[in-house]
TrEMBL record:
<feature type="domain" description="FAD-binding">
    <location>
        <begin position="52"/>
        <end position="416"/>
    </location>
</feature>
<keyword id="KW-0285">Flavoprotein</keyword>
<dbReference type="Pfam" id="PF01494">
    <property type="entry name" value="FAD_binding_3"/>
</dbReference>
<dbReference type="GO" id="GO:0016709">
    <property type="term" value="F:oxidoreductase activity, acting on paired donors, with incorporation or reduction of molecular oxygen, NAD(P)H as one donor, and incorporation of one atom of oxygen"/>
</dbReference>
<dbReference type="InterPro" id="IPR050641">
    <property type="entry name" value="RIFMO-like"/>
</dbReference>
<dbReference type="InterPro" id="IPR036188">
    <property type="entry name" value="FAD/NAD-bd_sf"/>
</dbReference>
<dbReference type="GO" id="GO:0071949">
    <property type="term" value="F:FAD binding"/>
</dbReference>
<dbReference type="GO" id="GO:0006744">
    <property type="term" value="P:ubiquinone biosynthetic process"/>
</dbReference>
<dbReference type="GO" id="GO:0005739">
    <property type="term" value="C:mitochondrion"/>
</dbReference>
<keyword id="KW-0274">FAD</keyword>
<protein>
    <recommendedName>
        <fullName>FAD-binding domain-containing protein</fullName>
    </recommendedName>
</protein>
<dbReference type="InterPro" id="IPR002938">
    <property type="entry name" value="FAD-bd"/>
</dbReference>
Length: 740
């Protein structure tokens, strides 16, 4: 076969469209000749491997949330996890407003987190070695129905596993399954100890090779599926196999993460200096201490290190214990180092989220890697999963075109790019504190680079290490009591600079309401608003200033603004959020209107067209506060014969008088909300002259329905179809019976 080999021997390109990517001996990608969007059930019919609509690689929070949502929406899936057990090393710990809003609808997960997290007063501050504290987090439930949370990733995984167990998922080791694949049913299983080692695109879909160790012998299990979702983290194997590259800044900082317990330290900090993050700078050591749980004394210490002079292997348990004592300032009696891991800080986003003929999709850290400053990593990943799940469901049900998959990338990738920039900005803000104290990290990096470039090839590593640590010791002396005090002119100047940074809010921030709740999709599964000032770039410029105030917006692509509501014509007197107007148990659209005749007319057209499309949709009529039952009953006659509607009454909070006013729109507006609580379309009902035609146009854009796309991509709908008998590898007798 004529081919051109890459210089590194890593790729092989053929002239006829087939291609192969070769990684290590255990990882490979084969692209076979195949028709565009060929059916999962096509081919020769001699395949006896298990068949699944979706396989998820990675059982971290993002992969588990994705598996829960897909299962809830009726999509059969399995999860591959290369580790044989779930890590207990705490990683992410801050859950922002938007992610908590999503967790509210995951069978009460948000409530479980709120009940299990440490008391708020123990973690709402950042603490610096000077005893000055950063901004206190805001927990007022005005802009969202739920507050942020401080909850360690490994504990979140435990809760998610319980939720999955409740809907029939099982966690299995290789020995629990056996090596036979003839009659294997993998759906609703998390396969531990299984690494995605190869991917092959075929006429039937995608064939995964999953390597596992059984009785000391490496084996490979073949799994056939329609779509492969890579949620396998920052060092994603799926991304590597798909040949998708990352773009951005690499190697911003190398760190050692030390997970340890000390109830003595936890009790001391709870009593004397409660907080979530402790930035500690003293002549003996520098580090950031994350208090995951003060009550139980669980901590993670982040220590910067500079290879090759300092190597990860140098950080033994004993050395880490000594560093902990130096940073604490006294010796707790019960320090227990549980785990030590190296990691590298990057700020990168994948060049694309979807590859290999739309068969492989990246989610979470596989698609983006942020500095931890701001806690955007896991939160952005969970929101990726939330964006993708409903689209896969509508694709499986034949309601949406396969082009809706591309809207996942067009919506989520710009958000990741923006969050990457914001994380870097916040990381630099965090570093302004040590810089003000005379410990500028950029100077440390420059010193390290000079040693590498000038001494690296001349003197032995041990001597290089001594030189580096000697220079760092001189630098750390800048925060000694001798220099850093009000009587020392230099120390007084630095302390004044530090106070200025903190008073002006220019240090590390952990809450970004404008970005957490106010991000907006510009293009995607929505009817874009043609206004220059509403572009993503304009939003970006608006938020580039230090103000992080969230401003509710009803523009297309925005998250539906929150306000408390009360159901009318029911005995239930309780209040709920406007976000709860959107069903969390199935992908359902909601049209929000005011009780006006022209809006009811548009609502009837919406229900009729949605019924034709077999698209779950309901009408939500928002009435002013104090509306009487006699008027409210008018919805029944206006919307007859349709019954899928709800009448609700506003419960506004001062200074806002109504939901429409809060959204800066009139009550003539109608708003179509997607299953992920983002606005798909808005207009004013009296501007619509032909309701049926307008609704058809809207659904056509939102669901990516055009005759040309349906003709070209119809076979991909079958990729997500699952046969009634998972062991039957033969195609259905009449594929045309699947509705497009």
């Amino acid at each position: 076969m004529p081919s051109i080999a890459g210089a590194g021997g890593g790729r092989l390109f053929s002239v006829n469209g087939a291609a192969a990517y070769w990684g290590s001996s255990r990882r490979r990608l084969l692209l076979l000749q195949r028709p565009l969007f060929s059916s999962y059930w096509g081919g020769t019919g001699d395949d006896v491997t298990p068949h699944l609509p979706v396989v998820i690689v990675g059982a971290g929070p993002v992969g588990l949330v994705l598996s829960f949502l897909l299962t809830k929406f009726g999509i059969k899936c399995a999860v591959l996890e290369k580790n044989v057990e779930f890590t207990r090393h705490p990683r992410a710990h801050f859950i922002n407003n938007r992610t908590m809003e999503i967790f509210r609808k995951l069978d009460g997960l948000a409530g479980d987190i709120e009940r299990s997290q440490p008391p708020v007063d123990l973690w709402r501050k950042f603490v610096y070695c000077t005893s000055l504290s950063g901004s206190i987090l805001d927990f007022d439930k005005i802009i969202s129905p739920i507050s942020v949370a401080h909850f360690s990733q490994h504990k979140l995984v435990d809760l998610l596993l319980k939720k999955l167990d409740g809907i029939g998922f099982q966690t299995c080791l290789p020995g629990d399954i056996g090596s036979s694949t003839q009659d294997l049913v993998l759906e609703n299983k998390i396969l531990l100890g299984h690494e995605c080692s190869s991917v092959q695109l075929t006429d039937k879909g995608i064939l995964i090779g999953a390597s596992f160790n059984e009785a000391g012998r490496m084996q490979e299990r073949k799994i056939h599926c329609g779509l492969l979702l890579g949620a396998d983290g920052a060092r994603s194997t799926v991304r590597e196999l798909a040949g998708i590259h990352m773009k951005g800044q690499r190697d911003l900082q190398k760190l050692v993460s030390v997970h340890f317990r000390s109830k003595d330290l936890g009790k001391y900090l709870s009593r004397e200096r409660p907080g979530m993050l402790f930035f500690i700078f003293n002549p003996g050591a520098i580090g950031v201490l994350v208090a995951h749980d003060l009550e139980h004394g669980e901590f993670v210490l982040q220590i910067p290190f500079y290879p090759p002079q300092q190597m990860f292997e140098d950080f033994s348990t004993k050395i880490c214990e000594e560093i902990i004592v130096k940073l604490v300032g006294w010796e707790p009696s019960d320090v227990q180092v549980l785990d030590i891991k190296p990691w590298v800080m990057h700020a990168e986003v994948a060049e694309k989220y979807i590859g290999c003929d739309k068969r492989i999709i990246l989610v979470g850290d596989a698609a983006h890697r942020f500095p931890p400053a701001g806690g955007f990593g896991m939160n952005t990943g969970v929101q990726d999963a939330h964006n993708l799940a409903w689209k896969l469901c509508l694709l499986q049900n034949g309601v949406a075109s396969p082009s809706i998959l591309q809207t996942y990338e067009s919506e989520r990738r710009p958000v990741a790019i923006f969050n990457t920039e914001l994380s870097v900005e916040n990381f630099k803000a965090a570093m302004s504190i040590p810089a003000a104290l005379g410990l500028d990290p950029t100077v440390a990096n420059s010193v390290h680079q000079v040693i590498n470039s000038s001494l690296g090839s001349v003197i032995p590593r041990n001597l290089q290490k001594s030189v580096l640590e000697g220079l760092f010791s001189i630098g750390r002396a800048q925060v000694s009591d001798y220099i850093l005090n009000e009587k020392n002119p230099l120390g007084s100047l630095r302390l004044a600079r530090l106070r200025s940074i903190l008073d002006e809010g220019k240090s590390l921030q952990l809450q970004f309401p404008a970005e957490d709740l106010g991000f907006r999709y510009e293009l995607g599964a929505l009817v874009a608003e043609d206004c220059a000032e509403t572009t993503y770039e304009a939003e970006k410029q608006k938020h580039s200033k230090r103000s992080r105030e969230y401003i509710p917006s009803a523009k297309a692509g925005s998250r539906l603004p929150h306000m408390l509501m009360r159901a009318l014509s029911t005995s239930n007197e309780g209040v709920f959020s406007t976000l709860d107007l959107v069903n969390g148990d199935k992908p359902e659209f909601a049209l929000i209107i005011a009780p006006m005749k022209v809006s009811y007319e548009l609502a009837r057209a919406m229900l009729k067209i949605a019924d034709e499309l077999k698209l779950p949709t309901k009408i939500c009529v928002i009435w002013p506060q104090g509306s009487v039952d006699a008027k409210v009953k008018g919805s029944r006659s206006e919307l007859a014969p349709w019954t899928n509607y709800v009448d609700v009454e506003e419960v506004p909070r001062a200074p806002v008088n109504s939901w429409w006013e809060m959204c800066q729109i009139t009550s003539k507006s109608v708003i179509l909300v997607r299953p992920d609580e983002h606005i798909a379309w808005r207009t004013e009902s009296d501007r619509v002259t032909d309701a049926d035609s307008e609704v058809r146009r809207v659904f056509s854009e939102v669901l990516c329905l055009t005759s040309r796309i349906q003709t070209l991509e119809k076979p991909l709908l079958l990729l997500l179809k699952s046969p009634s008998n998972a062991s039957n590898s033969h195609p259905p007798s009449n594929t045309a019976s699947y509705r497009t």
